Amino acid sequence: MKNEMPLLPYAEQGLEPVLSAETLSYHYGKHLQTYVTNLEKLVKGTEYEGKEVEEIVRTAPDGGIFNNAGQVLNHTLYFLQFTTPGQGKRPEGRLDELIRRDFGSLDLLKQQMDDAAITLFGSGWAWLSLTEDGRLQISQEGNAGNPLRRNNRPLLCFDVWEHAYYVDYRNRRADYVKKLWDLIDWQVVGGRLEDKE
Ligand code: MN
Are residues 51 and 99 in the same domain? Predict the structure, then answer.
């Protein structure tokens, strides 16, 4: 994908009451916009200028270019995996099969993902990704981390930087994490499993 703001398939109030319009206006409108703007400035005149964000995330050394590219990719995947509360259906097809095989059930996957998100120390992300040998994996990634860095395919992510939840949930990260499931659009997550790169 290019370094640009993703178009959201819902209105600013569309994720309430899980995430407020105020959170969305800051998190999408200010935080993500800043990462997009910073990345554009940082890559000018470097070998990364004009490259896809995924390629920068895979190949850039630790530092400003990687951090901003990671945050552009992470937030794009985060915001685009959401839909109106309760409208996200359930995993189907291959995704459903892999969840049963690798976790036992969707509820057990949710427990592991919640645990990863709640216990991550400091700022970062909890991820569900597909390993190179085709297994689903949950991981904690600090700061701008993305499983693509280890050649895993990112499928689903929970942002646990405080800016993601402090307006709506204050210090109650666990409440935020558990509510996020109401927003997940499993069609989108399943589509990421099938996307060819
Ligand atoms: Mn964020």
Answer: no
